[in-house]
Design a protein that fits this description.
Largest sheet: 7 strands, parallel
Oligomer: single chain
Strand content: 15-25%
CATH architecture: Alpha-Beta Barrel
CATH topology: TIM Barrel
Number of domains: 1
CATH superfamily: NADP-dependent oxidoreductase domain
Shape: globular
Length: 244
């Protein structure tokens, strides 16, 4: 596996990273399907082993994937695999719990402690703000940035990341967040990463970038050649291209 330097972090990581949204299994939020159906834990564990053996050792998860299930599966592997060999990223921002907002400082504190417990580690290598919705008039923006910086100072995360489906939103906040790494949506059918101007900013400022959904949730693999009906709890039910 070819390795790259991840921007100004100066950390060498595998050029391909492993996204583990599917590890969380089927999930819903209100009327929205937000998970992945038909994902067995044994398949997830086998995937981690195969990736490790292939040199894919940059793994990405989030607290919301299966309400922690994805993190727990990863954390269960350290008796088999070496944690220090993995560049481990997780995220927070889509589970508000009992608080008024996803990025309430007390909630963020609770979430990172929960993630570390699930992942069975004292730290993560990269901790993302999972989206750029900071509330009405961005009222939680300063709190979110201050809190994630505290996590970094405390050694709970080595680096800070900023993610969003919309590259323009990342571009709006990137100057003030000063993330080490960004995670925009990009694939052959959607390159707003370039058209938004975010690509240019990243190259000028040497920001690490890790794209999510580069094969568009599996659509671009060629596996789905006709309209597909997924089971309840599968987010692909809401992706119109799977039905066209």
């Amino acid at each position: 596996m070819r390795n790259i330097i991840l921007g100004k972090t100066n950390v060498e990581v595998s050029a391909i990273s492993l996204g583990t949204w599917a590890f969380g299994g089927p999930q819903s939020s209100g009327d929205w399907n937000t998970g992945w159906a038909d994902q067995k834990d044994t398949d997830s564990q086998e995937t981690l082993i195969k990736c490790y053996e292939a040199g894919i050792r940059h793994w990405d998860t989030a607290d919301v994937y299966g309400s922690g299930r994805s993190e727990i599966i990863i954390g269960s592997m350290w008796n088999t695999l070496n944690r220090s060999d993995i560049f481990l990223a997780t995220k927070t921002g889509y589970d508000s719990g009992s608080y008024n907002h996803f990025y309430h400082p007390k909630h963020m504190r609770s979430q990172i402690e929960k993630s570390l417990k699930h992942l069975q580690t004292d730290y993560v290598d990269l901790y993302y703000l999972h989206h750029c919705d900071f509330g009405e008039n961005d009222e939680y923006f300063n709190d979110a940035v201050e809190t994630v910086r505290k996590f970094q100072q405390e050694g709970k995360t080595r680096f800070i990341g900023l993610s969003d489906w919309n590259p323009s939103k990342i571009l709006k906040f990137i100057r003030d967040v000063e993330p080490d790494v960004i995670q925009p949506y990009r694939n052959l059918l959607n390159d707003t990463y370039t058209s938004s101007g975010l690509k240019n900013w990243v190259e000028i400022n040497d920001i690490g970038v890790c794209f999510f959904s580069p094969i568009m949730h599996g659509l671009l693999t060629g596996k789905y050649l006709k309209p597909t009906q997924f089971k309840a709890g599968d987010m692909r039910l809401g992706i119109k291209e799977f039905q066209d």
